[in-house]
Amino acid sequence: MSGPVERVFDAAADAAPEIRGGLPERRAKAESENESGEVQLEADVWADDLLFDRIADIEGVNWYASEEREDVLTVGDADDGYAVALDPLDGSSNVKSNNPCGTVVGVYDQPLPAPGSSLVAAGFVLYGPTTTMVVARDGEATEYLVEADGRTDLGPVELPEEPTVYGFGGRVPDWTEAFEAFVRDVEDDLKLRYGGAMIADVNQVLVYGGAFGYPGLRSAPEGKLRAHFESMPVAYVVECAGGASSDGSGSLLDLDPDSVHERTPTFVGHRSVMDDLEAALSD
Ligand code: AHG
Ligand code: MN
Ligand code: MN
């Protein structure tokens, strides 16, 4: 028996080979901006439409929201269904340079905007040298290999014991003094690996251990990443994989955003690094 939540991830896995296959011919810019004021690639809009077609019809899914759409769409008629929030193509600026990108999926059991505590499952697809999907639910995260004829269970995902890599976004002169001081300590122990696609950077934290983050900047105190579509879903995945998350003062899953496109400083990874971050930012 598969319920609506399983069917959402089945739909994302089914769409993945098609999304990957459609990227080579969609490297141009579309003539539009998204709600966050960013120029959309044709690939962003196309991936959003494709996922909407696959997910909106699932019984039990009542609301569909995406980084690429202004409003939350009501797609079901039950009052107590799930809300699916998507970043259809994360790291889409990597399409042009042929670097990895991803799809992020959050399933909330409340209408949006909704608190992080209402996430019942989250996951992502990573379009890298292979296509993989990580799905987190009920305190566990599982990785799958995604191919045209279906997905193969690769087993549980757990952060390794020791942190190894880090990657933090934003221009260094735009970082706050406290954050820069924290990073100077991190780089004594960990190795920089930053690729410009949150999903790829988070996945290497899951595999090698460490931390990924996009801080609040002097020019943009809330940073760049969007709570419903990016930050809270990856926090859910990383916490299920034995790691931690932070907005600089506490878990991202404790957030209760006021609007659907709200941004937040975003950090995920080893508990020890999150603790050091929170200590540094509270000074
Ligand atoms: P998106 O392509 O969905 O807008 O997300 C881009 C995000 C995220 O993937 C990444 O961590 C960050 O933007 C990279 O930003 P910079 O190019 O500023 O490093
Ligand atoms: Mn993104
Ligand atoms: Mn995106």
How would you describe the overall organization of this protein?
- It is a single chain.
- This protein has 283 residues and is α+β, with helices and mostly antiparallel strands.
- It has two domains: 4-156, 2-Layer Sandwich (Fructose-1,6-Bisphosphatase, Chain A, domain 1), CATH 3.30.540; 165-282, D-Maltodextrin-Binding Protein, domain 2 (3-Layer(aba) Sandwich).
- Helices cover 31% and strands 29% of the residues.
- The chain has seven helices and 15 strands.
- It has helices at 4-22, 42-55, 93-97, 177-189, 198-208, 227-240, 271-282; strands at 29-33, 39-41, 61-66, 73-74, 82-90, 101-108, 119-127, 131-137, 140-147, 150-156, 165-168, 191-192, 210-214, 244-246, 266-269.
- An eight-stranded mixed beta sheet has the order 4-3-5-6-7-8-9-10, with helices on both faces. Strands 12-11-13-15-14 form a five-stranded mixed beta sheet, with helices on both faces. A two-stranded antiparallel sheet has the order 1-2.
- Strand 8 and strand 9 form a beta hairpin.
- Helix 1 runs antiparallel to helix 2 (42-55).
- The longest helix has 19 residues, at 4-22.
- It is globular and about 50 Å long.
- The termini are far apart.
- The relative contact order is 0.14.
- The model has no long low-confidence stretch (mean pLDDT 96).
- It binds 2,5-anhydro-1,6-di-O-phosphono-D-glucitol (AHG) and manganese (II) ion (2 copies).
- 2,5-anhydro-1,6-di-O-phosphono-D-glucitol (AHG) is lined by residues 38, 67, 87, 90-93, 169, 196-198, 214, 224.
